[in-house]
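Quick one: structure for this chain?
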Amino acid sequence: EMGTRILYLVRHGHYHMETDRAQYGKLTALGRRQARRVGRRLASIDLRVMHHSDMLRAAETAEIIAGELSTAIPLKPSKLLREGVPTVPCPWLPDLTRAEAQQHRARMDAAYDRYFKPPRHGQRREVVVAHAHIIRYFVSRAMGDYVIKWARISLTQASLTVIAVGPVPGRAMLTSFNDVGHLSPEMCTFL
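Got it. Here's what it folds into:
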């Protein structure tokens, strides 16, 4: 019998969004505090590995989370977990082409196929630090919903979404969504 993989999906912390500034993509002071809080929240869980997007804001979030854990675990960056837009039209990106969205979706599907499968046996708990769009896409796929609905889901920065995969291959269950119990209300940001 196959095991169960429990994925703790974390959206990266608040970051500098001004593309013309040297700090672009780096976490803000608030983003670093958010990452520390989610790290403390995860510290009591027996985690095996932390996968993360190789984009700066996610990599910084993963490093800060790792520093809060009681046991050192491997950090594994991945281009598969980068931000993207899996469908068009996208209201906030009107110039995104269908071909670009198809490329993003193919990468997101490859990420889903890689991470959302049960282990051979036992239970594995893993962290995935990524971005709002790809986490929303993962949620839509895990629930067997129309993937176009990803754009109608909102995620707070440094929130936790938990999905259990298995023991039946291909079967996923959303067990927690956009959990921000570790953040005070003034620390809850969306952009």
